[in-house]
Amino acid sequence: MLSAPRPRSAVFSTIAELAPGVLLCGAISLLAYALQWGEERLLGHGYVEALVFAILGGTVVRTLWTPGRAYAKGIVFSGKTLLEIAVMLLGASLSSAALAAAGAPLLAGVIGLVVLALALGYGVSRLLGLSPTMSVLVACGNAICGNSAIAAVASVIEADAEDIASSIAFTAILGVIVVLTLPVAAAVLQLNEVRYGALAGMTVYAVPQVLAATVPVGPVATQLGTLVKLVRVLALGPVVFGAALVRRLRANDGSAGPAPRASVWRFVPWFVVGFVALAVLRSLGGVPDAALGPIRVVTTVLTVLSMAALGLGVDLGQLRKVGARATAAVTLSILALAVMSYILVQHLPL
């Protein structure tokens, strides 16, 4: 009598589900590295990093072809989990220069910038005729961390699918545009590496986009930009908690439905905790200098993979589906954030 076939292990099943998407991101990443290598051979210098080529390559692929469901989990894994690991590893190489620059004035300035950007984003959106719910989503996405903030806040204020889709669609596309133009603008403005890192951390929407915007400039810009960005990410917890509290108070007044409970700690990402832990470990001498080289290589490779996944999430055709008022609100909000960030970094002791 034949025995029943043994079921595949959970690990093997997970690998099989992730493989198509991860391999697609890997193929785009290899092409990005090949383009960077060719650029260096032809021009003698890599003016465009593999990170940028990976974003552009993923965007082109996504615009010309929509990957099927078989690729979805691997793309999400590459764009989220691998990126989070890369961000965590950055803590191990956090330099003393970046730590010195991230003093109390900078951290206070970042917090103040988030509060001001929230108020300004909401006000601009309302002036353009967007609904209160849509205005909250645009303001949070612009001030904190793009799509992640939009999704988190939307779950608390019970935004409808159309508002969520509209606010996310153009935010994703505009985020890539900012990544590609910010280094050029910084060069024109003649910002040093420290000030540029602070500007990128204050302006760019998502953590992976901060890496894409700062790695070509230098390690200090990357470390400081990531640190500043993580401060903005941590603001998501209090903002979501506050949104839930306001909704609960309104519910008690009978003007809204029951508000879901929210915990601040639920919105403190694990990789932020890991980043801080590795930074402390590094400062205590727990990370040897010999390990920094391999860590940087792994971090760079994982980041390029995540950039390819980021590009695969950008469909330029979606621009047609975004309303003019929502587009104007997001655009004006990010421009105002960039101007405020530039003024702030110019007046901070960096």
UniProtKB/TrEMBL annotation:
Transmembrane segments: 12-35, 47-65, 77-100, 106-124, 136-157, 169-189, 196-215, 227-246, 267-285, 291-314, 326-345
Membrane topology note: Multi-pass membrane protein
Recorded superkingdom: Bacteria
Annotated compartments: Cell membrane
Listed Pfam families: Cons_hypoth698 (PF03601)
Keyword tags: Cell membrane, Membrane, Transmembrane, Transmembrane helix
GO annotations of cellular component type: plasma membrane
Keyword Membrane appears in the UniProt entry: yes
Family membership: Belongs to the UPF0324 family.
This protein's name: Putative sulfate exporter family transporter
Species name: Alsobacter soli
